[in-house]
Request: fold
Amino acid sequence: MRHFNYKNGELYAENVPVREIAEKVGTPTYVYSAATLQHHFKALQAALGDLNVKIAFAVKSNTNSAVIATLAALGAGADTVSEGEIRRAIRAGVAPEKIVFSGVGKTVRELEYAVSQNIHQINIESIQELETLSEVATRLGKIQKIVFRVNPDVAAGGHDKISTGKKTSKFGISKERAFELYARAETLNGVEPVGLAVHIGSQIIDLAPLKQAYEFLAQMVKDLRANGHKVSRLDLGGGLAAIYQEEIEGPDLIAWGKIVRAIIHPLDVEIEIEPGRIITANAGILLARSIVTKENGGRDFVVLDAAMNDLVRPAFYEAYHQLLAVKEPVKGTNKMPTTIVGPICETGDTFAVDRLMEPVAPDELVAFMSAGAYGFSMASNYNSRPLAAEVMVNGDKWEIVRPRQTYDEIFGMEKIPDWK
Ligand SMILES: *Cc1c(COP(=O)(O)O)cnc(C)c1O
Reply:
């Protein structure tokens, strides 16, 4: 489901022609649809029915404050992986008691900040982290609720770089170690162990590995309780896939909801999830303009003004993004194999190779679809290119929610030492 469609021969975001945005704001520009964000958030809620599940939006998938605020208004919390993300979430209006802090390497400073804000939960991934947090929280006179991120040893996800649940991955702790640490945490000051967390990967379509991970959690809860430990909370992580290609079906959310109900609900625990991409991916597009077209060695290239620094997923994960012309192609136009690239000095700066599509002319507006997750949030200044502008559309209104970066903002703070 997305609210980017052709109307009157051109691409609209909700009720706004994206050409209007490109003309006023320039390109490359990310455009987000508030209605699509809301739709996906509510679809997750609907799949869970009357189960009481806390949804902590994974901020790293789309960090824009307007996106976070749109979801927070629907009751979303935030799943964060750095001090910066915690700060962002609070600034965007997420109550600290709805913030989860995840991540494999949290610094002392980050732990201090998180604890001082009285956040909902910190997900612990090592014994050292447990001990450091205990010291930090004790020093601050706080008791921090924690869960242990366990590694169920199941592989899942759309690409090796986003599979996180294997035994040898850097994430989480083993089952055996989790039992030890749970007991240890109960003896420590400043921390209160309340449960367990998993997050096995991203872009998960097949529900079998998720089910396996949930069964693993359920067994651990029973074993922990049998040993006299209190377990009142389970964090099921994120990872549900977004639809990037209409021909490939996404995860069956209703079936997923039933799995949560069957396996987790009977344990009588607070349930949390940390979805990112399934909410944000289809809620954003990246608008770009073609600079030149050229032919090399029999291959037709279109060079865009967007590049891998704006949208790195194709270069980094071999990811597919549908590319649409903003002006709707005339029906029956011959499609040509076209290679879509950015202007950066790397062959890796390629969005699609020999993609069958209607010819793109120079100076034509195009849109990468499903670019709302891990798009702007992974952007960089490589090649001294300014970060793209971000716009949010809501019905027939639209607003710049982050202006294009200026050159002064890129390198104005740099200093040339005057070695004397
Ligand atoms: C990245 C991440 C998520 C979100 O993953 P999606 O695939 O975007 O849903 C959730 N939890 C943790 C711990 C993560 O690292």
About this structure: The pocket of pyridoxal-5'-phosphate is lined by residues 58, 60-61, 79, 81, 102, 199, 202, 237-240, 274-278 (CB under 6 Å). The radius of gyration is 23 Å. The mean pLDDT is 95.
